Amino acid sequence: MSTTTALTKRTKSPFRYDIVGSFLRPEALKTAREKFTAGEITRDELTAVEDQAIIELIKQEEAAGLKAVTDGEFRRSWWHLDFFWGLNGVSFKKSSHGYFFHGEETRQETASVSGKITGENHPFVEAFKFTQAHVSEGIQVKQTIPAPAQLLVELLNPENIAAAREVYPKREELFADVAAAYHQVILDLYAAGARTIQLDDCTWGMLVSKTSEKFINSFGEGEADSLDDLKKLYLEINNAAIADLPADLTINTHICRGNYHSTWAAAGGYDSVATPLFDQENVQAYYLEYDSERAGGFEPLKAVGPNKYVVLGLLTSKDGKLEDRQTIIDRIHEAAQYVPLDHLCLSTQCGFASTEEGNILTEADQWAKIALVKSIAEEVWG
């Protein structure tokens, strides 16, 4: 595919140099969360520490040249569960085991159906308003939330499926309420000023690793009989949640294979999910992991729709070692054989702290990665 066409300047997400969303929690915030958990400080006192940490982070993001910033997910413990718990009808639950990563197991927490699921008054809306109020003029705020398919996987895992069936004996009603709840939250975020929302999604990453075969067996009789059924289900619920939204609202997605304490959960290229993910999911851009051989090659990108963008996650957020500059540039041009260079951008493969534990690198390493992303992008795209 030719890459000789003129390159345009990006004025909305995704930007040529970009981030996925989460940042390492500063020590003051970690300490405050520990004290809150121990009952030593109040919720208001914790919020005050969060507020200050987010204001300082925004200043650092802007100083780094980022055009779309986040709150670093500083008010969350998890990238996904905190959002789920904020929905009406979804509750915290202690699980019998954590999520399994390569050589590590996470804390034992999950989310379970406790009533009819709706999206009114989600706490993330007020959190967005705070971030929006503290950015400089011309800087955009990107709101990250877990994808609807991710919630479905959580609610229908073996430990939670009985509770889901008690409230929703018909699966179609559950799917409809999940999509409607997400739609409500997204519209509320839009009303608060959000113009870029990113759906973080590990479901496709698990599909490529074949680990979803276990999910098929536990998903419930008649729910999903094959990987193709799961692909169809994930696509339908994600698209239903983002249907009929305002034209000036950008919906992007980040496809992940797991990011916990510098470990990973899944491996496999995008080949088996390129269709329907890249050609039928109604998002504007895909933030894709491409920092290791576990992600496979670029050929599946030929399925990406003509008006969509791909943000190449070529630099790892899992360690502080800086990548070789020319190697990254060469890989960008390799990817441009399948997606026009003008429709490509650059970022790290994931955030720096998908959970409050964070990856194993320093804050200085974190900002050095972002500086390298920016420098390379400026050389490639001007």
TrEMBL record:
Q: Which residues form the Cobalamin-independent methionine synthase MetE C-terminal/archaeal domain?
A: 20-357
- Tell me the GO BP annotations in alphabetical order: methionine biosynthetic process
Q: Which domain of life is it from?
A: Bacteria
Show the GO MF annotations: 5-methyltetrahydropteroyltriglutamate-homocysteine S-methyltransferase activity; zinc ion binding
Q: Which PANTHER family match?
A: METHIONINE SYNTHASE (PTHR43844)
Name this protein carries in UniProt: Methionine synthase
Q: Which organism is it from?
A: Lapidilactobacillus concavus DSM 17758
